[in-house]
Structure formats: structure tokens, C-alpha cells
Amino acid sequence: MTAEQTWFGHPRGLTVLFLTNMWEQFSYYGMRALLVYYMTKQLMMSQGSASLVYGAYTACAYFTPIVGGIIADRWLGKRNAILIGGSVMAAGHFMMAFEPLFYPALITIALGNGLFLPSLPSQIGDLYAPGDARAGSAYNVYYVGVNIGGFLAPLICGTLGELYGWHWGFGAAGIGMLAGLAIYVAGQRHLAPQHRPPRPDPAPDVPAPIRFPRKTLLVLLAIALSVTVFRGAYEQVGNTLALWADAGVDRRVGAATIPMTWFQSLNPLLVMVMTPPLLALWRRRSATGAAEHPARRMAVGAMIVAAAYLMLAAVEAAGGPAHWLWLVAFFVVLTLGELHILPTGLGLFARLAPQGLGATTVAAWFLASFAGSLAAGLVGTLWSGTTHAGFFLLLALIAAAAAAMLLLTDRTKGLEIRSSDIG
After folding, report:
1. For 211, left (φ over 0), alpha (ψ -120 to 50), or beta?
2. Which are the contacts of 27, defined by CB distance < 8 A and separation ≥ 6?
């Protein structure tokens, strides 16, 4: 029997998916780093209107995968969905370089994203045999790929946009998307075989429909509702927090000034730095039988994010422009909380999916992100009508409410989920 070919202890296909996702995220976060600034500085939108557009766009980017996942599972297949979706997204990013195409470009990116986003992570599970202990950590490894792209994007796209013109930054995002597609095509031999969904059988013996176990469905619904609330606070990072970094933070270092978009690279950089020691800690806890249940781990993450916003509220209450180191400290705390909640939730949705509904179930995870992004856009409209300290306090309360909901899920009889559900 031929020994399995691995890279970094995992199947080689994980690296292909990792790199494909990295460049897709480069394109997404590169455009997102510029979006609010572009609307308020170039298109001269009011802050409230820009917040609503930002929230609607990010929401659509999470809503379209719900439909796209079903299309991939039933008709296109995952591979074709990624190729078509990625090509459409690349076109949308290049359209962003032209002001009259602003709204059509946003719609185009969201539509392509719908096919691409659920089909890529749903291929991770196909790389591992049932019971493979590496499967759980694979989603955290994959999440690092998200953040390498997110780290590079503000530095490259943001710098091009700020120094040479917004359209140069948007064009760089389109090139990143094409790079991701090229890697996916070149790495096909390392992925599990992708079969087109079977055509409907006209024979009278119709197979029984795939059904979710009731407990599994209730768990996923409870987690999704909690994450919806959580994202109302978390998604301010590219919205109102970006505006605060521009106007409320002293970004001077000697005679130089740190570009405002660079701070958006801190979160993904910290994900890469923090993920390995966190995984090692959780493995040790699991080995000693002290592993946290997934919902409890996610609740801890939401509380940590609440603490990050509470810190900003205190800094703002002290008065005067905040030193840029406070923004760095915020991202350190925020990222620690994020790593407890978002990869854990994605892993749950992917691993609890019934056979044949992988992309559809992962798409359902993005339904929570869709609703949360809409909520974040609405919450962001309060930025101009309240004190910044009061606004950050509100975000802390929202994150704390999500933590309470997750703890309730963990303690409710019949909804308990084990740490083994996330590996």
C-alpha cells in the first residue's frame, strides 16, 4: 500500500485548499480594507450611508453562499462551482477600478463568492479517513490561510490605494483572485476526486431524502443565532473601527505616520502567531480530559472580544486622540477571542454535516454571518450619533450577550456537544 503523501503532517490537498483560500481572502480583504475609506473619501458618502452599504455588501457576501452551496451540491459539483465563482469574483474586483461600476461590481463579487466560499472548505473533510485525528486541527490550519491573505491584503492593496489611487488597490485584489484560481487548478491531483452530482433517477424507487438528526439541527441553529449576535460587534473592524483608526488614533511614529489601512493587517498577523500555541494548549487539555465543550470555548471567545471593546471604551473616555499602541493592544485581545469562536464554529458546521450536504451545511454557517453583517451595518450607523466611548461600550455588551447565549446552549439539556465534535 502506497504511503500517504503529506505536507506539514497533513494531506497535500490541504495545502492546495489553504493557498487557494489565502489568495481569495487576499482579494476580499484587500477590497474591504479600502471600501469604507473609498466611499467616504472618494464617493463622498455620509458615514451612515457608507456603514449601511458596507453592512449590506458583507451580508450579501455571506448570504449568497447559502444558495451557492445548494447549487454546488445538487448541480455543478464543488470543483466547477469554485472555477465559475472565482472567475466571476475576479471580474467583479477589476470592475471596482471604475467608479460608475461600483454597485454592479459589489453585486458581481457577492454572486461569485456564493459559489466559491462554501465549496472550498467543504472539501477538507474529503481528505481524511473517518476517525483521523488530524481532521479537527485541519480547520484551524485552513483558518491560518484565511489570515495570511488577510495580512498581506491591507499592506499591498491598502498601500496602493492610499498612495497611488484607490483603483490600483482594487486591481491588485483582482490579481490575487486569479492567483488563487491558478493554484486550485494546478493542485487538482492532490484533492479528493470530485464527482458531478447524480442526475435524478426516473425509476420509481426514489431514495429516501437526506435528513438532519434533530439534535444536530438544534445545535447548529443555536450556534448560528449566537454567532449572528456576535458578528454585530465583531464586523465593526472594517467599518467604524477603521474610521476611528483614521480620525481618533495618533498614528505618528517620529516624523512618519502609519497608513490607516495597515492596522487591518494586525488581526490576520496575530491569528498566524497565536494559532500554533493555542492548538498546542487545546491538545494538552484534551489529552488530560480537560477539553472545553465547543459552545463553551466559543462563549469564552465572545467574552474576550467584549473585553477588547471595553478597553477601547475606557481609552476613549480618557479623552484625546488615542496612541496607536492602544489599537495594537485591542487587536491582540480581539484576535484571541476570535480564535476561540470562529474556527470552532466553522469546524462544527463542517463536521456535523450529513453525507451529501457538506457544502450546503457550510453555507448555513454563512447565514449567521449574513445576518450578523446586516446587524453590524445597522449598529454602525450609530457611530456618528453617539460618543465613541458609548459606542464601544455598546459593542462590548453585544459580544457579552452572544457569550451568554452560547453558555445557555452549552448548558441546555439535549443541546450538549462534545469537544470531539471539533477534534
Report:
1. beta
2. 89, 90, 93, 149, 153, 173, 174, 176, 177, 180
**Neighbour tally for 386: CB within 10 Å:** 12
CB 402 within 8 Å of CB 227 = yes
CB-based contacts of 332, cutoff 8 Å, min separation 6: 270
* Residue in the structure block whose three cell numbers are 452572544: 402
For the chain, how many residues are written?
A: 423
pLDDT above 90: residue 236? yes
Q: Is 60 exceeded by the pLDDT of residue 17?
A: yes
Cα 183–chain centre separation: 21
Task: Give the three-class secondary structure for 387.
Answer: coil
Q: Where are the alpha helices (DSSP H) in 318-387?
A: 324-351, 358-380
Dist CA 90 CA 68 (whole Å): 17
What gap in Å lies between CA 358 and CA 253, rounded to an integer? Answer: 48
pLDDT at 202 over 60: no
How many helices and strands in the chain, by DSSP H and E? Answer: 14, 6
- Domains of the chain (ranges plus CATH)? 9-193+213-421 (1.20.1250.20)
DSSP one-letter code for 195: -
What distances in angstroms separate CA 139 from CA 84, 124, 344, 345, 346, one per listed residue?
A: 24, 8, 8, 10, 8
- DSSP annotation string for 200-252: PP-SS-PPPPP---HHHHHHHHHHHHHHHHHHHHHGGGGTHHHHHHHHSEE-E
Percent of the chain with pLDDT over 90: 39
Report pLDDT for 352: 73
Residue 319 zone, left/alpha/beta (φ > 0; ψ -120 to 50; rest): left
Strand, helix or coil at 69?
helix
Residue 246 has pLDDT above 60, yes or no: yes
